[in-house]
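lol ok so funny story. i was supposed to be doing the assay writeup but got distracted and ended up predicting the structure for this chain instead. priorities right. anyway since i did it might as well share w the group, maybe its usefull for someone
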Amino acid sequence: MKINQQRKRIEEALDKYRSWLDDITDSRFGETPPIGGWSYAEVYSHILQSDFSSLIAAEKCARKTGVLTAKGTNLFGRFVLLTGILPRAKMPEMYVSASKKISKEEARNLLIRVRSRLDSVMEVLRNAPQDYKIKHPRLGMLNAEQWLKFTRIHTEHHLKQLERIKKSFDENVPSQPVQEVKEF
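and the output, tada:
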């Protein structure tokens, strides 16, 4: 998939995140879902901060301020980038503690920041070198194009999590919730 297609898919996913914000009540936004795990607010915090950071990494690689290296992705990284699938897995504690409950207004502002960063990154991404990379904590060394692809995969992945949260509220799961794995 070319970088313009990646961008389009990221923008489509961000449009869905924006649309969800209009449909979720303020009180429900911060509420822990019946299935346990993250609230909508925590998912938004995680995904938008992650997107912003990933786009910064992509820009650094494109501007040759990453690491000049022949090292690449690890086995997990190759799987994710090849299949476009980010398997559900227990998230490392450092990411769990980094997500916090934010307000819907903060989520809207983060969406604007991510879109703005995406616009600025696209300007330098077209001629990005393949051998300047920055290490992803789980995928290995990624170049600018790979960071953009990861951003798309990760952003789409968490839309599925929002759907599971919505379904759990809609079904009004009994008071003994099943603990959902917090995702990366």
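The mean pLDDT is 90. Helices lie at 3-23, 26-29, 40-62, 75-83, 93-98, 104-125, 144-171.
back to the writeup now i swear
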